[in-house]
Design brief:
It is a single chain. This protein folds into two domains: 285 residues, Hypothetical protein af1432; 135 residues, Alpha-Beta Plaits (2-Layer Sandwich), CATH 3.30.70. By secondary structure, the protein is of the alpha+beta class. It has 24 helices and four strands. The chain starts with 8 loop residues before the first helix and ends in a 7-residue tail after the last helix.
Length: 443
Amino acid sequence: MLRSPKPDTRVLEALHRIGALPVLGGTVARIRALAEDPHGTTADLVTVVESDEAFSANLLRYANSAAAARPIRARTIRQAITLTGRRRLVRIALEAETYRFLEHFPGGASVSRGQLHVHAVNVAAYSLTTAELCGAHGDTAHLAGLLHDVGKLLMPAAFGVAAIERIAREAASGAARAALERRRLGMDHAAAGAMLVGLSDPHDEVMRAIAYHHGGPGGDASPTPEAACVQIGNAVAHLLNEGETDWTVLNAALERLGRGPDLLDEVAERAGVAAAVAPHGELADQVGRLEAVAHTDDLTGLANRRAWIEAVRREVAAHGGGALLICDVDGFKAVNDGHGHRAGDLVLTEVARVLSRHGLAGRLGGDEFGVWVAGDGEAGHRTARAIMDDVAGSLPEPLAGGTTPLGVSVGVATVTEADADVMELLEVADRELYAVKPGGRRR
């Protein structure tokens, strides 16, 4: 069974007030049961659908709408069922009811909800297409994609409209919003959605795919192929609308399915939207740009902390011997305080340029950099001395405006084994760095 963190009383009370989702009950539930029954007939399905006048009208309206984008118009329920088949009928019925429910859901936080009804149908279509292309369970991916954001209805009911509106304004969507929800409220809308759907349809794989559509508690997980399909579907929907998506989650999903970024274009084309919305290859190109941004520090052009650590792990495993250096810019605060952040940025850019000549360099954050140097035990210390000399000769002394001249201090951790832990090496180098500073910088 899918296990979720125990919700607080506000969430439990909100679940009780909202109750089971109507989109998974009533006529839709009967249609789903009949579609699964090997003895069920088209006539049985027609009888069930026609017995619900409001549902029949809504089903026809939706089946012939632009949202459904079906090439053939159905004039009767029998025509609709005959044209679509029972499996597709179930999906259309779910889409129609979900579209209507999300479009007219009373109350809630309007900014945080947005166009949920349109987005839900799009993500469901892309999730299903991904499942068909990758051999995952299509009905699970479709239903989870359709209901992936229903937690946005539970969140304001549990935590108040004002709190959710503030989060939505700071982070409108995606992993950033989910992370902010977890930090401030203890859970995100993905986990909330899984709980809400669980009241009506406690299918573990559907709940898991909903709960992990933003990567789960760590923001980087893709536990099942169906969860990966929903993550891909969500990414395609955002990219086609020129929105942002999260490379960490997308990469985890692609890895789970054993595919590359070209899958996104394949999904868009198969779903029938690429020709109208995006030229062939555009989504893969966007993902390539997103991957580069996700691994690169915007200011210096070096690898960012995460990408650099991963690169060093590969180097350590491949070469064993070498050294990990942490370099901290001396006098940097005085530059920022005395000359402004633009001058500080110029200093960081110049330091990055120097470091990149001496090894595999990355920016760890702020004015702290890392450098990996392959070689023997003395390679790190030789490189540290060379870096300090080069930086001192490259940076203008008058910029500091204080008693501390511009330069760098360096901490060195020597590597002698191919299975050395990079995070432990960082701690060793960090201790070495701060050990030299009390005795004078630029050491």
